[in-house]
From TrEMBL:
<dbReference type="GO" id="GO:0047931">
    <property type="term" value="F:glucosamine kinase activity"/>
</dbReference>
<dbReference type="Pfam" id="PF01869">
    <property type="entry name" value="BcrAD_BadFG"/>
</dbReference>
<dbReference type="InterPro" id="IPR052519">
    <property type="entry name" value="Euk-type_GlcNAc_Kinase"/>
</dbReference>
<keyword id="KW-0808">Transferase</keyword>
<feature type="domain" description="ATPase BadF/BadG/BcrA/BcrD type">
    <location>
        <begin position="16"/>
        <end position="292"/>
    </location>
</feature>
<dbReference type="InterPro" id="IPR043129">
    <property type="entry name" value="ATPase_NBD"/>
</dbReference>
<protein>
    <submittedName>
        <fullName>Glucosamine kinase GspK</fullName>
        <ecNumber>2.7.1.8</ecNumber>
    </submittedName>
</protein>
<keyword id="KW-0418">Kinase</keyword>
<dbReference type="InterPro" id="IPR002731">
    <property type="entry name" value="ATPase_BadF"/>
</dbReference>
Amino acid sequence: MPLENTKDQTRSRRFIGIDGGGTKTSCVIGDESGAVLAVCHGESSNMKSRPWEEVKRVLAELISQAMELSQSEMSDLAGVFLGLAGADRPEDKEPLYAYMKELLPEGTPVTIHNDAVTVLAAGTWGEVGIVLISGTGSIAYGFLPETDTWVRAGGWGYLLGDEGSGYDMGRQALIAVMRQHDGRGGRTRLTDDVLKRWSLADPNRIITYVYSQPNVRTAIAELARLTLAAAWEGDEAAGQIVARGIDELAELAVTVRSRLAALQPDRDLSELPLVLSGGLFADDGFMNALTEHELVRASGLKPRRLSVPPVAGCYVLALKQAGVEMTEAIRQRISAWETGREV
């Protein structure tokens, strides 16, 4: 639900941050003091899995809604930062920049990055660190602010990668169900759980159900939570799926740390923050399994969950790119917005 603006705001510069993942897109608008004026949400804006016209519609609707809720004028905009899944390569960014130029007043500063960049900013306030995302997809990003250097591993999409993601685990759960049905695999409670979740009579109906979904990736990714629950209750097939996912994610994080160390060999990267984000890390068992993984423990990385939503990172980066210093007062205001506390 959108966050309604309940107070009159003095006219000031406005900044928009948009975080778009594989499942949904969030938009925040705030001023240069860190006061969040409105938040709204829409459908996925992933260019790799949604038609371009749908991506444009989602972005336009969210910006319009944010402006209306915050009682802002387009002339107030001093910066827009978009962190969108599937938008970290020049050929991906080019049409987005062109569309933002059409949509926004002339001269409005616009910056576009992969959504992992903004998640990291939400966890470190734009400082050095690594982010590991396991949601519909998966990716790891590292950032060295002194040299403005980004290092990534993974994030190759559901056809070529996304190991340890919700989609990856959901797909493997369906494969386990099909293998049992064929007689090629052992019994798993995932069969009953999937059929119940989708209200299907038998596994033969799964293929028709899956291919009829408007967003197949999202439908399959939703089975990850079901897989986690089965794993924690001792199902062997589910446990193997989760263990493989944790291994893949740990490897992503440690690989990024190694590459950062190679770029700055004299820098002390011990106790480097590892920001964990995405729906799977909301599960305590999954979070703990990654934290206790031998690769992560040996690396010295310090895993932690986000304390603010990923979209806050877009807002933070919009402010920083406008030269606004991230003071403690600004951090506290941004951190307080979801709880409604006054700062």
